[in-house]
Amino acid sequence: MTNTALLVMDVQNMIVDRFQDDGYLPRLARAVDAARDAGIPVIYVVVGFRPGYPEVHPRNKVFGPMAERGFEPDEASTAVAAAVAPRPGEVVIAKKRISGFAGSDLDLVLRSGGIEHLVLTGIATSGVVLSTLTQAADLDFRLTVLADGCFDSDPEVHRVLTEKVFTRHADVVTVDAWTKTLTGA
């Protein structure tokens, strides 16, 4: 059993549709396929609220407007993008705030599975990836970030985070470099 898990975070249709990078989903799919082939669990972290959004406070600048836009569970817009969608039996964690740990049972699932090393991917680099990385570092997880497995609407913010900030807490590599370590190629 591996002590590593690949986290695919906020790669939901409504979020993916806001960004333009035709190479992102195929690149991320390579990472997901490589993890599965290596026996590494793929865990999906998604934004998920109950109908009526009882978890969303109107003062929350990020999530407050979602109640007006529609972000109901079980809608096509909130599903994980088809190119990287979970297979039956893969864990999907619903979170209530930006970090994958906030309002979710992510820590419980990871610790119950003996996971000590997290490989982070997702949208956006300055949102879920940054918040989850910071909390995971505080929880003493070993961390790897797949720089091109993350995406942000601001390329400069993405660059600064992956080249200067994340390196304080994690190994930062490309999808291709990471998949090569799994295959020994």
UniProtKB/TrEMBL annotation:
Q: Which UniProt keywords apply?
A: Hydrolase
The record's InterPro entries line, in alphabetical order, gives:
Isochorismatase-like_dom, Isochorismatase-like_hydrls, Isochorismatase-like_sf
Keyword Acyltransferase set for record: no
What's the superkingdom here? Bacteria
Looking up SUPFAM superfamilies in the UniProt record yields: Isochorismatase-like hydrolases (SSF52499)
Say yes or no: keyword Hydrolase present: yes
User: Any signal peptide, and if so, which residues?
Assistant: none
> Which residue ranges does UniProt annotate as crossing the membrane?
none
GO MF annotations for this entry?
A: hydrolase activity
* A Pfam family assignment: Isochorismatase
Q: Which residues form the Isochorismatase-like domain?
A: 4-176
Query: What protein name does the entry list?
Result: Isochorismatase family protein
What organism is this sequence from?
Actinomadura physcomitrii
